[in-house]
Design goal:
The protein contains eleven helices and nine strands. By secondary structure, the protein is α/β, with parallel strands linked by helices.
Length: about 325
């Protein structure tokens, strides 16, 4: 009789968000991810951890980086990976999403990786399937694997998260990346600052355990990490700032604004970066301080760890149910 996989410190079936996760759970996800960094730097990058398992990447929104990263992660673990891109126009009602879930469930996948334009859509889908579900970004809600890869990048460079001063700058209002990062970094003991114009800050942001600034130099002063965010133009209805030129003047990262941060402050961006909008090209390409490429590398390791952990959690759950 098969032995049940050992229970891990992260025992959930799904990864739908960072909110509510404990220090121990986040630490375990980061530790497991760190192990995969080494594997990805070897000549032979594959193992058979998920041989025979099926992963479906279901993307209702376009995303080259995240989808490719999950695809590569699954293939390096020897899983069968299927990519499904669904036009957002086909998901106008909750019933459509449920029908999609029912169809996919009949295919018996082990992990479903979902990106959706509507906040809460991934949660709804997870309630309708028997497999594990990973949220690859839902509306303006959460993007948990992005926060994990950002945290892993920082931790590998700085050796810790606790006590670091980290500024998250730009379009906080529409950013699922910002929300997941805030939940993770605050939980892990970092001092988080939000820097944005008032129009791009959600109401009540000051109640999230963060400091709020509307001036870049004030917000970046003595920071260890400067995390820039993309303007989410596709989610904006109306005018949130007078012009791109004015936005860059006040909130775009250049060396002058960066000068008030610590001399070795790291520069981050989840990508794709709008050069000359939220970050100056010279700053983005300063590889003595910019870790944007490193974030991409960490993304594959994080997604391998998440696929590994959730697949084995599901296997253990099924074996226990069969007893």
């Amino acid at each position: 009789m098969a032995t049940s996989p050992k229970k891990s410190p992260y025992s959930h079936r799904h990864l739908l968000g960072i909110e509510g996760l404990s220090v121990q759970e986040i630490s375990y996800l980061l530790e497991k991810s760190d192990e995969y960094v080494g594997q990805n730097r070897r000549a032979d990058k594959k193992n058979d951890t998920l041989h025979g398992r099926t992963i479906i990447n279901l993307f209702f929104e376009d995303s080259t980086r995240t989808r490719t990263s999950f695809e590569l992660a699954g293939k390096r673990l020897s899983a069968d990976v299927i990519n499904m891109s669904v036009g957002s126009s086909s998901v106008n009602k909750g019933e459509t999403l449920i029908d999609t879930a029912s169809t996919l469930n009949a295919m018996h996948p082990d992990v479903l990786v979902v990106r959706a334009g509507l906040s809460g859509a991934v949660q709804l889908l997870a309630e309708k399937v028997n497999c594990a579900v990973i949220n690859a970004g839902d509306g303006s809600h959460e993007h948990p694997t992005q926060a994990l890869l950002d945290a892993l990048t920082i931790q590998r460079r700085r050796g810790k998260l606790q006590g670091l001063k980290i500024a998250i700058c730009g379009d906080i209002l529409h950013s699922r990346v910002a929300r997941s990062n805030i939940y993770l970094l605050v939980t892990m003991g970092a001092q988080v600052r939000l820097v944005a114009p008032m129009t791009l800050l959600p109401s009540g942001a000051e109640n999230w355990g963060v400091e709020v600034f509307h001036d870049m130099k004030a917000g970046l002063k003595n920071c260890d990490i400067v995390m820039m965010l993309r303007l989410q133009n596709e989610r904006m209805q109306g005018n949130y700032f007078p012009s791109i030129r004015e936005y860059f003047h006040f909130f775009g990262l250049d060396y002058e604004k960066l000068s008030v941060a610590k001399p070795d402050a790291l520069i981050m961006h989840p990508g794709p970066a709008n050069r000359g909008v939220e970050i100056d090209s010279e700053v983005a390409d300063d590889y003595s301080r910019s870790v944007i490429r490193e974030q991409v590398e960490m993304g594959v390791a994080v997604r391998m760890a998440c696929l590994d952990i959730l697949s084995h959690n599901l296997q253990r759950e099924m074996q226990e149910a069969a007893k």
